[in-house]
Amino acid sequence: MYVLNCFSIHLLLLFSSLSEVVEPNVTLRLEGPSSDSSLVCSVHFFYPKHIRVTWLRNGEEVTSDVTSTDILANGLWSYQIQSYLKYTPTTGERIICMVEHISQTEPKLYHWDPSLPKSEKNKIVIGVCGLLLGVVFVVAGLIYWKKSTGRLSGLIGECDYGTCD
């Protein structure tokens, strides 16, 4: 009897957790070479299964050059889908991935930003800081070396009471 009650409690917990809605996690990325690239709108970890993913170009829905995967189960009682848009960069063009799901009161818009991703910007900043630090150490080392060998005075000149030779 105890085993049956535990089993029914676990079933009840399972079905109550499945009745909850889970908002999707959405990421945008560029895939492929610049001449034949695609924007990918990855939608993960949503529940229930029904979802609509569409692309907007300058506010207009795009129907050509769009492909999507089937909605796939994650194995964690949630689902995922990926939508692809053939993309050739154009100046001033605004690309948006629009996701409609029951967990949201209105469709969510995810804007494509063609600038460098934050992780790439961080790598550049760290590299530049490292380079500047290296230059400072090289200059400090040269000054120390020239002072210790006595060659600095010959390069700068001798100054005494405001007059320099």
UniProtKB/TrEMBL annotation:
Keyword line: Membrane, Signal, Transmembrane, Transmembrane helix
Transmembrane segment boundaries: 124-145
PROSITE patterns: IG_LIKE (PS50835)
Matching SMART domains: IGc1
Signal peptide segment: 1-24
Domain Ig-like: 24-110
Protein name (record): DLA class II histocompatibility antigen, DR-1 beta chain-like
Recorded name of the encoding gene: LOC120031688
